[in-house]
Amino acid sequence: MKKTISLLLAALLLGMLFAGCGIPGAVPSSNDDVDSGALLPTEDKTPVDEQSNGSLGDNALGTGISVADSYTAYLDAKNALVGKLADGLSNNPDTAFSSLSLLGVTMADLALMPVSLFGLGQVSMEAGLGFFGATGVKYSESGNRYTVSYADKDGIQYDFTGTYDAAADALNCTAKMNGAENIYFEYRKTSFGYVGQYYFINEDGTTSLYQLAVKGGDGTLGLSTVSGQPTQLNDGESADFPKACPEWYSLDGNSITGVTSDGTQLNFAYTPAATE
Fold this sequence. Notes:
By secondary structure, the protein is α+β, with helices and mostly antiparallel strands. The chain has five helices and eleven strands.
Protein backbone atom coordinates (compact mmCIF):
# COMPACT_ATOMS: atom_id res chain seq x y z
CA MET A 1 0.00 0.00 0.00
CA LYS A 2 2.72 2.49 0.95
CA LYS A 3 4.48 1.96 -2.39
CA THR A 4 1.21 2.58 -4.23
CA ILE A 5 0.64 5.84 -2.35
CA SER A 6 4.23 6.96 -2.93
CA LEU A 7 3.94 6.29 -6.65
CA LEU A 8 0.61 8.10 -6.81
CA LEU A 9 2.04 11.14 -5.05
CA ALA A 10 5.02 11.17 -7.37
CA ALA A 11 2.79 10.90 -10.42
CA LEU A 12 0.57 13.74 -9.24
CA LEU A 13 3.53 15.97 -8.50
CA LEU A 14 5.13 15.31 -11.86
CA GLY A 15 1.82 15.78 -13.65
CA MET A 16 1.28 19.15 -12.00
CA LEU A 17 4.85 20.26 -12.61
CA PHE A 18 4.82 19.57 -16.33
CA ALA A 19 1.17 20.26 -17.10
CA GLY A 20 0.54 23.27 -14.85
CA CYS A 21 -2.68 21.73 -13.49
CA GLY A 22 -4.08 25.10 -12.45
CA ILE A 23 -1.54 25.70 -9.70
CA PRO A 24 -1.58 29.47 -9.03
CA GLY A 25 1.67 31.05 -10.12
CA ALA A 26 3.08 27.90 -11.69
CA VAL A 27 4.48 28.47 -15.15
CA PRO A 28 5.83 25.15 -16.48
CA SER A 29 7.78 25.34 -19.71
CA SER A 30 6.57 23.70 -22.91
CA ASN A 31 10.12 23.54 -24.25
CA ASP A 32 11.04 19.86 -24.28
CA ASP A 33 14.55 20.62 -25.53
CA VAL A 34 15.70 22.49 -22.42
CA ASP A 35 18.77 20.87 -20.89
CA SER A 36 18.30 19.68 -17.30
CA GLY A 37 21.25 21.81 -16.24
CA ALA A 38 19.11 24.89 -16.84
CA LEU A 39 17.10 24.07 -13.72
CA LEU A 40 19.71 25.93 -11.72
CA PRO A 41 20.76 29.31 -13.16
CA THR A 42 24.49 29.83 -13.42
CA GLU A 43 26.07 32.07 -10.83
CA ASP A 44 25.06 35.64 -11.44
CA LYS A 45 28.01 38.02 -11.57
CA THR A 46 25.93 41.13 -12.17
CA PRO A 47 26.72 43.84 -9.59
CA VAL A 48 24.17 44.05 -6.81
CA ASP A 49 23.13 47.60 -7.62
CA GLU A 50 22.42 46.64 -11.26
CA GLN A 51 20.47 43.50 -10.29
CA SER A 52 18.18 45.23 -7.83
CA ASN A 53 17.49 48.36 -9.83
CA GLY A 54 19.56 50.50 -7.49
CA SER A 55 18.50 48.90 -4.20
CA LEU A 56 21.06 46.95 -2.19
CA GLY A 57 18.34 44.93 -0.47
CA ASP A 58 18.40 43.43 3.02
CA ASN A 59 22.15 43.00 3.41
CA ALA A 60 22.63 46.74 2.89
CA LEU A 61 20.40 47.31 5.91
CA GLY A 62 22.93 45.52 8.09
CA THR A 63 20.74 42.51 8.86
CA GLY A 64 23.32 39.98 7.71
CA ILE A 65 20.69 37.77 6.03
CA SER A 66 18.93 38.20 2.71
CA VAL A 67 15.26 37.50 2.16
CA ALA A 68 16.23 34.64 -0.18
CA ASP A 69 18.38 33.03 2.53
CA SER A 70 15.60 33.51 5.09
CA TYR A 71 13.01 31.92 2.80
CA THR A 72 15.35 28.99 2.09
CA ALA A 73 15.85 28.37 5.81
CA TYR A 74 12.09 28.43 6.37
CA LEU A 75 11.49 26.04 3.45
CA ASP A 76 14.08 23.61 4.79
CA ALA A 77 12.28 23.46 8.14
CA LYS A 78 8.80 23.33 6.59
CA ASN A 79 9.62 20.66 4.03
CA ALA A 80 11.41 18.50 6.60
CA LEU A 81 8.24 18.47 8.71
CA VAL A 82 5.87 17.84 5.79
CA GLY A 83 8.17 15.11 4.51
CA LYS A 84 8.11 13.29 7.85
CA LEU A 85 4.34 13.62 8.13
CA ALA A 86 3.86 12.30 4.59
CA ASP A 87 6.28 9.48 5.30
CA GLY A 88 4.51 8.54 8.52
CA LEU A 89 0.99 8.74 7.10
CA SER A 90 1.80 6.79 3.93
CA ASN A 91 3.76 4.17 5.88
CA ASN A 92 0.78 3.42 8.11
CA PRO A 93 -1.90 1.23 6.42
CA ASP A 94 -4.77 2.98 8.20
CA THR A 95 -3.71 6.50 7.13
CA ALA A 96 -2.06 5.93 3.75
CA PHE A 97 -4.63 7.90 1.76
CA SER A 98 -4.56 10.76 4.28
CA SER A 99 -1.06 11.52 3.01
CA LEU A 100 -2.71 12.88 -0.14
CA SER A 101 -4.00 15.79 1.97
CA LEU A 102 -0.42 17.05 2.12
CA LEU A 103 -0.13 17.43 -1.64
CA GLY A 104 -1.43 21.01 -1.67
CA VAL A 105 1.05 22.38 0.85
CA THR A 106 3.83 20.55 -1.01
CA MET A 107 2.84 22.13 -4.34
CA ALA A 108 2.71 25.54 -2.65
CA ASP A 109 6.47 25.79 -3.07
CA LEU A 110 6.06 25.61 -6.85
CA ALA A 111 3.27 28.18 -6.84
CA LEU A 112 5.49 30.53 -4.83
CA MET A 113 8.68 29.91 -6.76
CA PRO A 114 9.21 33.64 -7.55
CA VAL A 115 9.49 34.31 -3.81
CA SER A 116 12.64 32.19 -3.65
CA LEU A 117 14.29 34.75 -5.98
CA PHE A 118 13.42 37.86 -3.97
CA GLY A 119 16.52 39.91 -3.28
CA LEU A 120 18.58 38.31 -6.05
CA GLY A 121 17.97 40.93 -8.73
CA GLN A 122 16.43 41.21 -12.19
CA VAL A 123 18.91 38.89 -13.90
CA SER A 124 18.39 36.01 -11.46
CA MET A 125 14.62 36.50 -11.48
CA GLU A 126 14.54 36.37 -15.29
CA ALA A 127 16.74 33.28 -15.36
CA GLY A 128 14.68 31.42 -12.77
CA LEU A 129 11.25 32.26 -14.19
CA GLY A 130 12.46 31.97 -17.77
CA PHE A 131 13.12 28.27 -17.31
CA PHE A 132 9.37 27.82 -16.72
CA GLY A 133 8.45 29.77 -19.83
CA ALA A 134 7.77 33.15 -18.23
CA THR A 135 8.04 36.27 -20.38
CA GLY A 136 8.01 40.01 -19.69
CA VAL A 137 9.61 39.58 -16.27
CA LYS A 138 9.75 42.89 -14.39
CA TYR A 139 11.34 42.87 -10.94
CA SER A 140 11.95 45.68 -8.48
CA GLU A 141 13.04 46.29 -4.90
CA SER A 142 12.34 49.24 -2.65
CA GLY A 143 13.76 48.87 0.84
CA ASN A 144 12.20 45.71 2.24
CA ARG A 145 9.50 45.47 -0.44
CA TYR A 146 9.82 43.19 -3.48
CA THR A 147 7.64 42.99 -6.57
CA VAL A 148 7.73 40.89 -9.70
CA SER A 149 5.32 40.57 -12.61
CA TYR A 150 5.41 38.23 -15.61
CA ALA A 151 3.24 36.28 -18.02
CA ASP A 152 3.24 32.50 -18.39
CA LYS A 153 3.33 30.60 -21.69
CA ASP A 154 -0.47 30.93 -21.98
CA GLY A 155 -0.39 34.69 -21.51
CA ILE A 156 -1.75 34.62 -17.96
CA GLN A 157 -0.41 37.56 -15.96
CA TYR A 158 1.03 37.05 -12.45
CA ASP A 159 2.03 39.71 -9.94
CA PHE A 160 3.83 38.98 -6.67
CA THR A 161 4.43 41.47 -3.86
CA GLY A 162 6.38 40.66 -0.71
CA THR A 163 7.50 42.54 2.38
CA TYR A 164 10.33 41.19 4.51
CA ASP A 165 10.73 42.23 8.15
CA ALA A 166 14.39 41.47 8.83
CA ALA A 167 14.15 42.20 12.57
CA ALA A 168 11.40 39.61 12.99
CA ASP A 169 12.67 37.34 10.19
CA ALA A 170 9.16 37.40 8.73
CA LEU A 171 7.93 37.51 5.15
CA ASN A 172 4.44 38.49 4.01
CA CYS A 173 3.46 37.94 0.38
CA THR A 174 0.44 38.25 -1.90
CA ALA A 175 0.00 37.17 -5.51
CA LYS A 176 -2.48 38.04 -8.24
CA MET A 177 -3.51 36.14 -11.35
CA ASN A 178 -4.86 38.35 -14.13
CA GLY A 179 -5.37 41.11 -11.58
CA ALA A 180 -7.30 39.06 -9.03
CA GLU A 181 -5.62 38.14 -5.75
CA ASN A 182 -5.31 34.37 -5.43
CA ILE A 183 -2.52 33.75 -2.91
CA TYR A 184 -1.73 35.06 0.54
CA PHE A 185 1.37 33.60 2.19
CA GLU A 186 3.50 34.41 5.20
CA TYR A 187 5.95 32.93 7.65
CA ARG A 188 7.84 34.20 10.65
CA LYS A 189 10.57 32.98 12.97
CA THR A 190 9.49 32.27 16.53
CA SER A 191 11.13 31.37 19.81
CA PHE A 192 10.44 27.70 19.08
CA GLY A 193 10.98 27.58 15.30
CA TYR A 194 8.63 28.84 12.57
CA VAL A 195 4.96 29.49 11.95
CA GLY A 196 3.50 29.92 8.50
CA GLN A 197 0.27 29.96 6.54
CA TYR A 198 -0.83 29.65 2.93
CA TYR A 199 -4.21 30.84 1.67
CA PHE A 200 -5.23 29.98 -1.90
CA ILE A 201 -8.27 31.11 -3.85
CA ASN A 202 -8.71 28.39 -6.45
CA GLU A 203 -9.90 28.95 -10.00
CA ASP A 204 -13.30 27.39 -9.18
CA GLY A 205 -13.81 29.86 -6.33
CA THR A 206 -13.07 27.41 -3.51
CA THR A 207 -10.39 28.24 -0.97
CA SER A 208 -7.64 26.32 0.78
CA LEU A 209 -5.81 27.25 3.97
CA TYR A 210 -2.69 25.55 5.27
CA GLN A 211 -1.27 26.57 8.65
CA LEU A 212 1.87 25.12 10.15
CA ALA A 213 4.19 25.38 13.11
CA VAL A 214 7.66 23.86 13.12
CA LYS A 215 9.32 23.13 16.45
CA GLY A 216 12.74 21.62 15.97
CA GLY A 217 12.23 18.36 14.09
CA ASP A 218 8.58 18.24 15.13
CA GLY A 219 5.52 20.30 14.29
CA THR A 220 1.91 20.52 13.22
CA LEU A 221 0.13 21.13 9.93
CA GLY A 222 -3.51 22.23 9.77
CA LEU A 223 -5.81 22.23 6.73
CA SER A 224 -9.04 24.14 6.26
CA THR A 225 -11.38 25.79 3.79
CA VAL A 226 -12.26 29.30 4.89
CA SER A 227 -14.33 32.08 3.40
CA GLY A 228 -11.79 34.84 3.88
CA GLN A 229 -8.13 35.62 4.28
CA PRO A 230 -6.76 34.53 7.68
CA THR A 231 -5.58 36.96 10.34
CA GLN A 232 -1.95 37.93 9.95
CA LEU A 233 0.53 36.08 12.14
CA ASN A 234 1.74 38.20 15.06
CA ASP A 235 4.36 36.13 16.92
CA GLY A 236 1.76 35.21 19.51
CA GLU A 237 1.00 31.83 17.95
CA SER A 238 1.78 28.68 19.92
CA ALA A 239 3.24 25.53 18.40
CA ASP A 240 -0.27 24.04 18.51
CA PHE A 241 -2.13 26.84 16.71
CA PRO A 242 -2.72 24.77 13.50
CA LYS A 243 -4.81 22.34 15.58
CA ALA A 244 -7.65 24.88 15.39
CA CYS A 245 -8.16 23.67 11.81
CA PRO A 246 -10.75 20.89 11.30
CA GLU A 247 -8.06 18.66 9.75
CA TRP A 248 -4.57 18.52 11.20
CA TYR A 249 -1.54 16.28 11.58
CA SER A 250 1.16 16.60 14.23
CA LEU A 251 4.54 14.96 14.76
CA ASP A 252 6.00 14.79 18.27
CA GLY A 253 9.10 12.64 18.41
CA ASN A 254 8.03 9.19 17.26
CA SER A 255 4.31 9.87 17.59
CA ILE A 256 1.84 11.18 15.00
CA THR A 257 -1.53 12.48 16.12
CA GLY A 258 -4.23 14.27 14.20
CA VAL A 259 -7.73 14.50 12.81
CA THR A 260 -8.41 13.40 9.23
CA SER A 261 -10.69 15.11 6.72
CA ASP A 262 -13.57 12.84 7.77
CA GLY A 263 -13.06 13.57 11.47
CA THR A 264 -11.21 10.39 12.41
CA GLN A 265 -8.77 10.92 15.28
CA LEU A 266 -5.26 9.55 14.85
CA ASN A 267 -2.59 8.45 17.29
CA PHE A 268 0.12 6.07 16.14
CA ALA A 269 3.87 5.57 16.19
CA TYR A 270 5.88 7.23 13.45
CA THR A 271 7.83 4.59 11.53
CA PRO A 272 10.16 6.07 8.92
CA ALA A 273 10.16 4.28 5.58
CA ALA A 274 13.04 1.91 5.15
CA THR A 275 15.84 3.26 2.99
CA GLU A 276 17.19 1.03 0.27
